[in-house]
Design a protein that fits this description.
Blueprint: H1 5-12, H2 20-23, H3 27-38, H4 40-47, H5 54-76, E1 79-81, E2 84-86, H6 103-121
Helix pairs in contact: 1-5, 3-4, 3-5, 4-5, 5-6
């Protein structure tokens, strides 16, 4: 793991109330994806306290942080109540109620974070044999 909860919160503008335990499940998928993009050697170097390539380590730290946000976004956009998952509210929201992103809005935000991850480490992505999938969100209908 290159990034940590503090770095992820800073990148995403998340409040401190979203603690490390909430983000923890998403570091594994983020690190595995980043390793696919840049290779184990580059990733391992970035994990070191004094990496050989400091610029690359900083870029990979940002990329991993954005990937954590990408994977965490659906979980952060919901509340699980006694009767199940509570989703977004469309009408009649008062000032003391929370609203959540609609599925399309959530997917757009996730795509922004995925693109930020790719942009952060683009020059370090292995050229051969790796396809970095960036899907496009359909335009409003």
């Amino acid at each position: 793991m290159i990034a940590d909860g503090s770095h992820v919160r800073a990148l995403g503008g998340l409040p401190s109330g979203i603690d490390d335990a909430t983000l923890a499940p998403f570091f594994g998928p983020a690190s595995r994806r980043l390793k696919e993009w840049v290779g184990n050697e580059a990733y391992s170097d970035a994990e070191q306290s004094t990496p050989e390539d400091g610029d690359r380590a900083a870029a990979l730290k940002d990329a991993e942080g954005y990937l954590v946000l990408y994977y965490a976004a659906p979980r952060l956009n919901m509340v699980i109540g006694d009767s199940g998952i509570i989703t977004y509210k469309i009408d009649g929201t008062s000032s003391d109620e929370f609203t959540y992103l609609a599925p399309r809005e959530l997917e757009r935000l996730r795509e922004v974070w995925l693109q930020d991850a790719v942009s952060s480490c683009r020059v370090y992505i292995i050229k051969a044999g790796v396809t970095v999938g960036i899907s496009t969100v359909a335009a409003d209908e």
